[in-house]
């Protein structure tokens, strides 16, 4: 009788222990099952809206002494004091009617020709950014096959914080977003600052959404085609870099978590 009682208690104990061990696993399965499905990929080359502090769009850290024009001359190191002073006279210059900017990247050289008449405000901003070394060290942080390659957030959070509100008004769209065209990204009307994208293909569906090309790649589109794209869409819609973290943490975040991203070494006006 006593033995039967002990055996029964032992069985009940085993059952209770088993239930307690299974409970966390069941709870974890329930949590995973309730998680929302992954978001669809973003279809616009947008800047994330500022989040109320220093999460804005901006520019990159600048390495010294890299060649900018393909000759023996070296690009002058950017003046950090100028980058931190948007009121400096060098930011207010009008661009030439037509000019070229040479990008030296980790995949090779790219030449962009700008036609100011296409988008005058965008052309002026790009001219001054490039001429002041603004894009040196900038990562191609959002590269989506068949769509576009996006760049222009500064690798230095200190510079990013200064430029987050340096917006320019929109230009009317005068030319289509086709392969090789260069356009400012934006987070809504009149929010262009420094982020750009280069179209891989025909993105003419963007033409009536405020995206106004100001230039085009005339040399090195094969280089753009080779930019590392396997990280895909950025967070939270995909596994790629999160724009807010780039703005707050700069290039160290990208180099630690997305080490295969390609970069701009230098970008300068060459003629």
Per-chain topology:
Layout: H1 2-34, H2 80-83, E1 98-105, E2 108-115, H3 120-131, E3 142-144, E4 148-151, H4 157-163, E5 181-184, E6 196-199, E7 215-219, H5 221-225, H6 243-249, H7 251-257, E8 264-269
Antiparallel strand pairs: 1-2, 1-8, 2-7, 3-4, 4-6, 5-6, 5-7
The gist of it:
With 271 residues, the protein is of the alpha+beta class.
Helix content estimate = 25-40%
The profile of the biggest β sheet is: 8 strands, antiparallel
Question: How many distinct helices?
Answer: 7
Report how far apart the termini are.
102 Å
Q: CATH homologous superfamily name of the largest domain?
A: Cyclophilin-like
| CATH architecture term of the largest domain | Beta Barrel
DSSP strand content: 15-25%
Order of helices and strands: HHEEHEEHEEEHHHE
Could you list the spans in which at least 5 consecutive residues all have pLDDT below 50? 1-6, 10-42, 48-73
Structure overview:
- With 271 residues, the protein is of the alpha+beta class.
- It has 2 domains: 30 residues; 190 residues, Cyclophilin, CATH 2.40.100.10.
- Helix content is 28%, strand content 15%.
- The protein contains 7 helices and 8 strands; from the N terminus they run H-H-E-E-H-E-E-H-E-E-E-H-H-H-E.
- An 8-stranded antiparallel β-sheet has the order 3-4-6-5-7-2-1-8.
- A hairpin with a 2-residue loop joins strand 1 and strand 2.
- The radius of gyration is 25 Å and the shape is globular.
- The N terminus is likely disordered.
Keywords:
271 residues, alpha+beta, Cyclophilin
């Amino acid at each position: 009788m006593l033995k039967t009682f002990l055996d029964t208690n032992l069985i009940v104990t085993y059952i209770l222990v088993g239930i307690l061990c299974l409970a966390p696993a069941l709870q974890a399965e329930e949590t995973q099952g309730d998680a929302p499905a992954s978001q669809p990929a973003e279809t616009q080359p947008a800047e994330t809206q500022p989040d109320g502090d220093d999460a804005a769009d901006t520019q990159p850290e600048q390495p010294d002494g890299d060649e900018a024009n393909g000759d023996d001359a070296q690009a002058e190191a950017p003046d950090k004091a100028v980058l931190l002073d948007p009121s400096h006279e060098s930011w207010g210059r009008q661009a030439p009617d037509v000019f070229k900017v040479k990008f030296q990247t980790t995949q090779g050289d790219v030449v962009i020709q700008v036609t100011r008449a296409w988008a005058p405000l965008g052309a002026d901003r790009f001219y001054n950014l490039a001429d002041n070394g603004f894009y040196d060290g900038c990562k191609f942080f959002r590269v989506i096959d068949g769509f576009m390659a996006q760049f222009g957030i500064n690798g230095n959070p200190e510079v990013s914080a200064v430029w987050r509100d340096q917006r320019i008004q929109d230009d009317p769209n005068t030319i289509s977003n086709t392969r090789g065209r260069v356009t400012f990204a934006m987070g809504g009307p009149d929010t262009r600052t420094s982020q750009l994208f280069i179209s891989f293909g025909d993105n003419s569906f963007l033409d009536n959404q405020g995206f106004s090309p100001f230039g085009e790649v005339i040399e090195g589109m094969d280089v753009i085609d080779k930019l590392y794209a396997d990280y895909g869409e950025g967070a939270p819609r995909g596994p790629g870099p999160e724009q807010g973290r780039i703005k707050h943490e700069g290039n160290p975040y990208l180099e630690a978590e997305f080490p295969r991203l390609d970069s701009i070494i230098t970008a300068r006006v060459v003629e």
